Amino acid sequence: MSTTISDYIKAQQPRSAKAKASNTVSVFYRNLEEELDARRADHSLVTLHTREDHTVDFSSNDFLSLASTGLLRMAFFDELARHPNFQLGSTGSRLLDGNNHYIETVERELAEFHGAEAAIIVNSGYEGNGAIFSAIPRPGDVVVYDELIHASVHDGLKECLALTRLSFRHNDVDSFYETLLEVRDSQPQIRQGERSVIISVESVYSMDGDVCPLRELVDAAKEIFPAGNAVFVIDEAHSTGVQGPKGAGLVNALGLEKEIAIRMHTFGKALASTGAVILANDTIRTMLINHARSIIYTTAPSFPMLAGIRAAYTLLKSGMTQPAQDRVQLLVRHFFKHMLSKPIWNKAKEMGVLSIPLSEDWESKDHLTQIIPVWTRQKYNYFLVFHLHFNGFAAYPIDFPVVPKGTSRVRLVFHAANTEAEVEGLAQCIAAWAEEMVDIEESGKGVRIPTAARQAYSVVAAEEVKNGAAANGDKNGEKFDVVVGKGVGNGVSSGIPVSVGNGNGANGFH
């Protein structure tokens, strides 16, 4: 039994009744346990986990394997050696004592690498999006965003002075066009060129793995707003290091550096560091320094953090990461080739047991992203994760509110250090699970659940007996009765949710 699964299931046991019965637990903690029990009741309490050593990583954001191979560590130590007398802490905010020549040098280097006028480094991508959307839009502006934009953008919009915010269908150029027409026709100041439309998109969407049709969106915006008052903000978190020349990102790949007002690149994924950088012109940088509370009221990045970022970019600029960038492409293609050649693939897809939208026409695509979601029936994604973990593969289910309801999936991430044999084993493991699910559905026996899930649920039963919960009779077992087939979805309450979104179906990971 996977420790990750076992620990998760044990954490779902209710605790508020025990807290109420105790004279030593204050009402403050009892009320919190009641709230947590609301999640435990349907087995959706989020728990932290660590990847077990015996599992193969198809989950982390270490796309280029800079963290796992130690390549970045060596570059980091080299950077530290060049500055032997470095000061560990930054000692203050950027506006007070936290600014220094080193951070300004790194920012100039990043701006030059990405072809931007200016840059400002922040402590995280979440902080970066919050800074942008709380500080940049002005009263009377309108924010237009892809419906699957990251949760941090939504949180930034809570402090935004632009009160009109409109979404368009994900990666849908026609919907985008119609939304801009609606803005133009309903907002006189924008139509007259006195206010701006600020458009928020991502280069690669973290839960869907698809790429923004950026050039088409830019062309549409220019057509509708020829005065140039429609500007783009793009989150390049999942394209940094893996897309574009030397991993510079989608904007650089398309040559749209002059067309995009604000870009944000993060360093905690392919670059195996931490923090993020906002790329823009001097006007926007000055606005952020003066109006972004998440920059004004926080400690500046420390030297070790900056040294890690600089070390990563040293690898990018030298071309040392290009083989890893190319290898990710090779492995994703290898996965599609083997997965789609499995005898069960077409039947399972036709029955709706699973699908991989990004596999459509994969052979004709110049670039494939490293994020490959496997879509399943509602709650089947938990079954698939149980099966993967029991067979030594680390991947996790994604469900509402991280993604919209009815779009359950398992998010697979491919890394440069994965081997062809591991990829083939992953494809075979998914195919074996699909065969079992197809067999269950065709058998017509509604209460059957797959082998790995039965093993996981046995832990629940054992835990309930251990805690005396079995005294409640058969009710404790009823929650695990599953009707497998087209009506599935409401019968299974167990899973391993690994994050929470913002409650509106927006992407909740970064």
From TrEMBL:
InterPro entries, alphabetized: Aminotransferase_I/II_large, AON_synthase_class-II, PyrdxlP-dep_Trfase, PyrdxlP-dep_Trfase_major, PyrdxlP-dep_Trfase_small
Domain Aminotransferase class I/classII large: 55-428
Keyword tRNA-binding (UniProt): no
GO biological process, any: biotin biosynthetic process
Superkingdom field: Eukaryota
GO MF entries: pyridoxal phosphate binding; transferase activity
Keyword DNA-binding included in the entry's annotation: no
Cofactor: pyridoxal 5'-phosphate
Keywords linked to the UniProt accession: Pyridoxal phosphate, Transferase
Alphabetical list of SUPFAM superfamilies matching this protein: PLP-dependent transferases
Family the entry assigns: Belongs to the class-II pyridoxal-phosphate-dependent aminotransferase family. BioF subfamily.
Protein name, per record: Pyridoxal phosphate-dependent transferase
